[in-house]
Structures are given as structure tokens and as C-alpha cells.
């Protein structure tokens, strides 16, 4: 129906006849001559309709915003003084000779160039309108380029694109499963995959030594800016590899992707241990663009007569950390109070601070409500953090977990608020993760998942599970975890040892993972892989603030689709087919919510 897209029209087509199809972006009537700005996925072009062409003029006259038109006309240069060099089609216009209204349109719920004036709920309710915006089109276009680039790279490296099931069985992988009732097996349920983890390991056992998939994954967990109930994963697995093999090939893939799509040359990725990342930045995904670090001061604070500090400093699970902010002494008391509220989100009971106004004056040159409690150690403290005049030092004192989360988050917030970024892109690998983490009751759970290989023998693992490291690695970019992976357990004895430590008995292990344990008996090769969050990757590359901006039809923070009103009720007949009966009380409570 068309010869060109609107955005493809330019000076090379002058005096040629073209036909385009698109939406009316703007209509202007200039004293009997109608100007139509037409829009499609490639851009906007200007069309001029004279009264000389009666039928075309009549159709243009009744056209309104978002009407769908088909226009045929001759390309010509715009008159001198009306050209727009900032617009790809700004040097030309099309003199229309035929205008056909393909469809009318109701007044849209918001104007595309005024989307910022309406809430996100309105935009998500009418997502098909929101997606017409040029910036949304560009985000999804870039997403398509990224997917294509990744596929081409992996295909060239000998990886095979293999699909794995979406209807599978529930297995514990760290989040709640989305369950699907079975009609043919009454009382039983499928689960939507949290990842293709077990199936890709089975593909390695089957001998497909290089696998990849751009896979849909599903997790019923609390949402945030970089989480959705369904998300897309670039899943990669290979056999006869070690950590450095997987890290090298995936780092090359990401560096090539940035070069091809953004024309950005990423540096070789540095490596940092999990322990160093937590000690220096309070996070296992540190944003290295921010030149602020946490400094341990436990040994100093054990000496002070201030239980808020000396208590955590002396506790086995406690920590006192200092965060120096160069030039931060200019922060007002109101701003400090706001930061105190902010760290409270992460469980911190307060935020102590010292302003270094004139260090040469000793205690008189310091401003702080706590400095009187640490007179004997204050000079050594200032030396340790290398404090200069005009700096401010913040402190976190509590359980190490709370200090890391609170002061680590404060570091990131200060970096953004004070624009402390030193570079545009800062990637790294985080390695040597603990194998397990303990809850408040001391019960161990896998830091990643129970199929991650430990970096020790089964005997060493059983002797000291809490101190064991794993063969896991995460790729981090600008404070966001792009992807995580590990070398997997390929030996049945090691897998059984891990299950024992996690309190998964033989019967439970057979019930939940019997097919994997069986497969490990039949010549499973050493293997490992990595999974990237495609949505997060695209979010970073387009400069969006949330992955909802780079997903065509996302869910809200409450895991609902405003456009389709999903999730929704189903008919009694459907429930009967599935042998499901809803309790009236639960149904009423749900309706009330």
C-alpha cells in the first residue's frame, strides 16, 4: 500500500511520486492550504494539500489527530525559511494529489507529545497509543537490534538456539512459582519456569555442548524498577568449560554489542571478589562510576565510650563503616535529615556524621553531635578516611548486613544527587561468591541456586559449608547486575552433598529433582553458563529508568496489566474443568482488594 515510510523521505526523492501510510500527528489549516504532519514508525514528514485537488482536500479537511491516512504526492524542497535541518525530513515536503482516509480515530486519552502530563497508569491502560511515541518506537527498535546482535554473535560462536518447556514442574529456585492447574491430571499443577536452569543442564548431558536461548521466565516476587513477573533472559550454557571460558566469551559478546549498537568501546572488565565488593561498596553489584568507598573502623570504635558504635564494632556479626564524601560539608541539616530517613528504609536506626570544616583546629574544626564521644580516636579516624577540609563523613553502625545495605545505598544516592559520576560506563566481574547464606535462624540457603558448583571438595564442603566459596560470577554494569552464572555441579555425589547441607532429604530430592539426579549418572560433562537479563540490558543501553519502558506490554508494580485487566476472573465452567473450587470468603476478600 505504500512506497516509502514517512521517515525515509529526503532530498534524494525530490520530484518523485511517493505513497505513504501513517497516522495524522498534527493538522494545520493555513488560509485554505492544509498541512498534515504524518507519522509512522520511521519518523514524521510534512504533507501539503491544496484546494486544487478537491477530493484530497476534502479528506484532509476532515482528518483529525491519529486518523489513519494513505497519501500519494510529489516530493519537493520546502520553501526557503521553512526548512528544519534538525529533522531528518525537514528539508522536504510532499505536495499531495491523493488523500485516502483508511480509518478514523476517537480523540486519544492523551496527546503523544504531552505524555509527561499524564500518569503512567493512563499510559499503560492505553499502551497501544503510548507505543506510537517516537521515543518508545526507538527503544523497541534498539531492543530488536540488541536481540539480533546477540543471536548473530552466539550463532557465530557455535551456539545452538534450543527452546525449553514453559510448562514444567515446580522446583525451588529462590522465588515463588507461577502455577498452572492441569485439566488432565486433576489436583496437579504445572509451573512456569523461573529460568531454563535444569533443562539447559540436561542439554549439556545430552551432548549439545553450546546452547543459547532468548527465553521467557516467570517469578512471582515483589516488583521494583528492574523486575517484572515475566521477563526475558539471554540464557547461555556450554560444556567442557571453566569460569574464565564463560566469562571471556560473554564479556566479548557484551563489548561487541556496545560497539555495534552504541558505538561505545567498553574497557576490559576488571574482576573483584564478592568480599571486597561488600567491604568497599556495601553491595555485590557496585557502581564503580562513583568514587566513594566504605572504610572499616571497627577497631577504632571498639575503644570509644559510645555503645551505638562500640556495640556493633565488638559484635561478631556487627560492622561500623565510614563513608567520606569530598566537599560534602556543604550539605544542610535538612539534607542530612533526608538522608537519615533514606537509610532508615534499609533498617538503619540513624545516620551519624562529622563535618570537617578546618581540620588544623582539631576538635574545634569539626562539626558533629558525636565527635565528643571519640576524642581519643578522631585523628586516627580522619587519617584513615583521608579527610580534608570541606568533607563530610557518614557512619553506619549495626549488623553488617544492615550497614552494607544502608550505607551502600546511601553511597549510590549521594553519587546521583551530587553528580559524582566519573565515567559513562563502568563494567566489572564480581567473583568468589559464598556458596550459602544464612538466615536469622542460621539456616543455610544457596546464594545463587542449589546447582552451583562449590570451589572445594565434597569433604571440605561438609566440614565448613558456611565458609565455602562457589564457582559463581556476576557481570555488573553501572551498579546493575546484567547477568549471573556459574560452573554447575555435574557430579551426583556433590549434588547430594549440597542437598544434604540445605536440608533436602533423599526422598524430597528424588521428588523435586529426580530427573536431574538420574541424568547426572549418565556421563554428565563439566559445564557452566550465564544468564543475562535482556530487559535490564536494554534499559541501560537506552538510558531508561525502568524496564517497563523497554517492554512492549509490561505489568504494573502490583503485577497487573491495566490494558487487558489481567489477572481476571474465569468462568465457573473453566474452574470445573480444572477441578478447582474457590472458597467464597477468599473470593470476597479478593474482590474487596
UniProtKB/TrEMBL annotation:
List of residues binding L-aspartate: 173, 219, 448, 488
Main subcellular location: cytoplasm
Binding site for ATP: 219-221, 228, 481, 533-536
TM spans (from-to): none
PROSITE patterns: AA_TRNA_LIGASE_II
Key words, A-Z: Aminoacyl-tRNA synthetase, ATP-binding, Cytoplasm, Ligase, Nucleotide-binding, Protein biosynthesis
InterPro entries for this protein: Aa-tRNA-synt_II (IPR004364), aa-tRNA-synth_II (IPR006195), aa-tRNA-synth_II/BPL/LPL (IPR045864), Asp-tRNA-ligase_1 (IPR004524), Asp-tRNA-ligase_1_N (IPR047089), Asp/Asn-tRNA-synth_IIb (IPR002312), AspRS_core (IPR047090), GAD-like_sf (IPR004115)
Pfam families tied to this protein: GAD, tRNA-synt_2, tRNA_anti-codon
One of the record's GO molecular function terms: aspartate-tRNA ligase activity
Catalytic activity: tRNA(Asx) + L-aspartate + ATP = L-aspartyl-tRNA(Asx) + AMP + diphosphate
EC number: 6.1.1.23
Coiled-coil residue spans: none
Domain Aminoacyl-transfer RNA synthetases class-II family profile: 140-554
Region feature (Aspartate): 197-200
Xref: Gene3D superfamilies: Bira Bifunctional Protein, Domain 2 (3.30.930.10), GAD-like domain (3.30.1360.30), Nucleic acid-binding proteins (2.40.50.140)
Site (Important for tRNA non-discrimination): 30, 81
Subcellular location: Cytoplasm
Summary of the function given for this chain in its UniProt record: Aspartyl-tRNA synthetase with relaxed tRNA specificity since it is able to aspartylate not only its cognate tRNA(Asp) but also tRNA(Asn). Reaction proceeds in two steps: L-aspartate is first activated by ATP to form Asp-AMP and then transferred to the acceptor end of tRNA(Asp/Asn).
Family: Belongs to the class-II aminoacyl-tRNA synthetase family. Type 1 subfamily.
Subunit: Homodimer.
Protein's name according to its UniProt entry: Aspartate--tRNA(Asp/Asn) ligase
Amino acid at each position: 500500500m505504500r512506497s516509502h515510510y514517512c521517515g525515509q523521505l529526503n532530498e534524494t526523492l525530490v520530484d518523485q511520486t511517493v505513497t505513504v501510510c501513517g497516522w495524522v500527528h498534527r493538522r494545520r489549516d493555513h488560509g485554505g492550504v492544509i498541512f498534515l504532519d504524518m507519522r509512522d514508525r520511521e519518523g514524521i514528514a510534512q504533507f501539503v494539500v491544496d484546494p486544487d485537488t478537491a477530493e484530497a482536500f476534502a479528506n484532509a479537511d476532515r482528518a483529525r489527530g491519529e486518523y489513519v491516512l494513505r497519501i500519494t504526492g510529489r516530493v519537493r524542497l520546502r520553501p526557503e525559511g521553512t526548512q528544519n535541518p534538525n529533522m531528518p525530513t525537514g528539508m522536504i515536503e510532499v505536495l499531495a494529489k491523493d488523500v485516502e482516509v483508511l480509518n478514523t480515530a476517537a480523540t486519544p486519552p492523551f496527546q503523544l507529545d504531552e505524555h509527561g502530563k499524564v500518569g503512567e497508569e493512563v499510559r499503560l491502560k492505553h499502551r497501544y497509543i503510548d507505543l506510537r511515541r517516537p521515543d518508545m518506537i526507538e527503544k523497541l527498535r534498539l531492543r530488536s537490534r540488541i536481540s539480533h546482535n546477540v543471536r548473530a554473535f552466539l550463532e557465530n560462536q557455535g551456539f545452538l538456539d534450543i527452546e525449553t518447556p514453559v510448562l514444567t514442574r515446580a522446583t525451588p529456585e529462590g522465588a515463588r512459582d507461577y502455577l498452572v492447574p492441569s485439566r488432565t491430571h486433576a489436583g496437579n499443577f504445572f509451573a512456569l519456569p523461573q529460568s531454563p536452569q535444569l533443562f539447559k543442564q540436561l542439554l549439556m548431558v545430552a551432548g549439545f555442548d553450546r546452547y543459547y536461548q532468548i527465553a521467557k521466565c516467570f517469578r512471582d516476587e515483589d516488583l521494583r524498577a528492574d523486575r517484572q513477573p515475566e521477563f526475558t533472559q539471554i540464557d547461555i550454557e556450554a560444556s567442557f568449560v571453566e569460569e574464565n571460558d564463560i566469562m571471556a566469551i560473554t564479556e566479548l559478546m557484551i563489548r561487541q554489542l556496545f560497539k555495534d549498537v552504541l558505538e561505545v568501546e567498553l574497557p576490559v572488565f576488571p574482576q573483584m571478589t564478592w568480599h571486597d565488593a561488600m567491604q568497599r561498596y556495601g553491595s555485590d553489584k557496585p557502581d564503580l562510576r562513583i568514587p566513594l568507598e566504605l572504610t572499616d573502623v571497627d577497631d577504632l570504635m571498639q575503644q570509644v565510650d559510645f555503645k551505638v558504635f562500640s556495640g556493633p564494632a565488638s559484635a561478631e556479626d556487627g560492622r561500623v563503616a565510614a563513608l567520606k564524601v569530598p566537599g560534602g560539608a556543604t550539605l544542610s541539616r535538612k539534607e542530612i535529615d533526608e538522608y537519615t530517613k533514606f537509610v532508615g528504609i534499609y533498617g538503619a536506626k540513624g545516620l551519624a556524621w562529622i563535618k570537617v570544616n578546618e581540620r588544623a583546629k582539631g576538635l574545634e574544626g569539626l562539626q558533629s553531635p558525636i565527635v565528643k564521644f571519640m576524642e581519643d580516636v578522631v585523628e586516627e579516624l580522619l587519617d584513615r578516611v583521608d579527610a580534608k577540609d570541606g568533607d563530610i563523613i557518614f557512619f553506619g553502625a549495626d549488623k553488617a548486613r544492615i550497614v552494607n545495605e544502608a550505607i551502600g545505598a546511601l553511597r549510590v544516592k549521594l553519587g546521583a544527587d551530587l553528580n559524582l559520576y566519573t565515567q559513562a560506563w563502568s563494567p566489572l566481574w564480581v567473583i568468589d561468591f559464598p556458596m550459602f547464606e544464612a538466615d536469622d535462624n542460621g539456616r543455610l540457603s544457596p546464594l545463587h541456586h542449589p546447582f552451583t558448583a562449590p570451589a572445594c571438595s565434597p569433604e571440605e564442603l561438609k566440614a565448613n559449608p558456611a565458609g565455602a566459596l562457589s564457582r559463581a560470577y556476576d557481570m555488573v554494569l553501572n551498579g546493575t547486575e546484567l547477568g549471573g552464572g556459574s560452573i554447575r555441579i555435574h557430579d551426583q555425589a556433590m549434588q547430594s552433598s549440597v542437598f544434604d547441607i540445605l536440608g533436602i532429604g533423599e526422598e524430597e530430592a528424588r521428588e523435586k529433582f529426580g530427573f536431574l539426579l538420574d541424568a547426572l549418572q549418565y556421563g554428565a560433562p563439566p559445564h557452566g553458563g550465564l544468564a543475562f537479563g535482556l530487559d535490564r540490558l536494554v534499559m541501560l543501553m537506552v538510558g531508561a529508568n525502568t524496564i517497563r519502558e523497554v517492554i512492549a506490554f509490561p505489568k504494573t508494580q502490583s503485577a497487573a496489566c491495566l490494558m487487558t485487566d489481567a489477572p481476571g476472573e474465569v468462568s465457573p465452567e473453566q474452574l470445573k474443568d480444572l477441578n478447582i473450587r474457590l472458597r467464597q470468603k477468599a473470593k470476597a476478600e479478593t474482590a474487596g482488594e
